Amino acid sequence: MVIHLLIDPFESADWQVEDWHIKFMLSERLLTHARKQSARPNWYEDAQIATTWHELITTCFHSIQHYHRTFHNLPVVGDRLFNEDTGWMIQDRSIDGDKMTITFTLDS
User: Which residue ranges make up each domain of the chain?
Assistant: First the structure.
C-alpha cells in the first residue's frame, strides 16, 4: 500500500503557520537519492522511504514553526532546517496567496 508518492508534495493538516498551509517538495538531488535507496522498480512509491522522509520533513516543519514563533518571519532560501551543519536546506520557496500555501523545496 502506498502512503505517499515521493514526487508529490509532503503535507499535513497540522502543518500551518498562522493561516498558511506549509508543504514540502524534494529536490531532484533528494529524489535521485531516494531512487538509489529503493529496491522497487517504481521507487517513487516506496512506502518505507516515504515514511522515513516524512518524519524528517516533520522535523523540518517544527524548525520552521519554532523559527516563526521566535522571529515572526519564515526561513528563506539557503537556510538549513533541523541541523545547522547537515540538515536539509531550503532550495526554493513558492507562495500561493489564493490557496494560502507556502511550498518549500528541500535539498541536502
Answer: 10-107
